[in-house]
Amino acid sequence: MKLEVSYQGGTRYDIVTGAHRVVTDQPVEDGGQGAGLSPVELFVGSLAACVGYFVGRFCERHHIPHEDLRVQAEWAMAENPHRVGQITLSIHLPHPLTTELRERLLKVAQGCTVHQSLIAAPAVDITLTPQN
């Protein structure tokens, strides 16, 4: 699997994969134009979207209405090294669930691919391609 990030000027970088483009930028208060999500917002958002997808599929399998499903995310930064240090996700469903379904749903949410990639962190190699 591949994607490419390209510089668009200022603090904007676009992510392109297949027919899709995602614009990232820094907020105005950080010197950007606010043309898109910041990379950190995209990072946290990808986790929330993945949880939403897994929960939505669970709801479909168990015939639980989920038209108004929402996942809210809050995060805090940490230092040494500078990073996202805490993420709190809150899943909102329009209907109450039994205790058993709540426990199963939370287990499914925790099994989402992005969450599991944070728990068992991937190896990341960064190289510089030599210029010809």
Distinctive features:
132 residues, alpha+beta, 3-stranded antiparallel β-sheet, 27% strand
Structure description:
The protein has 132 residues and is an alpha+beta fold. It is 32% helix and 27% strand. The protein has helices at residues 39-61, 99-110, 113-119, and strands at 4-9, 12-17, 20-24, 70-78, 83-92. The protein has a three-stranded antiparallel β-sheet, with no helix packed on it. Strands 4-5 form a two-stranded antiparallel ribbon. A hairpin with a 2-residue loop joins strand 1 (4-9) and strand 2. Helix 1 (39-61) packs across helix 2. The longest helix is centred in the middle third of the chain and has 23 residues, at 39-61. It is elongated. The two termini are 25 Å apart. The relative contact order is 0.12. The mean pLDDT is 96.
Q: Output the structural class.
A: alpha+beta
Q: How confident overall, as mean pLDDT? A: 96
Total of DSSP H or I helical runs spanning 4+ residues: 3
The total strand number stands at 5
Oligomer: single chain
The topology string of helices and strands comes to EEEHEEHH
Based on Cα principal axes, name the global outline. Answer: elongated
**How big a fraction of the residues is strand?**
25-35%
Report strand order across the widest sheet.
1-2-3
> Unreliable runs, pLDDT <50, ≥5 residues?
none
| Main sheet record | 3 strands, antiparallel
Proportion in helices: 25-40%
- Which radius of gyration do the C-alpha atoms yield? 18 Å
End-to-end gap: 25 Å
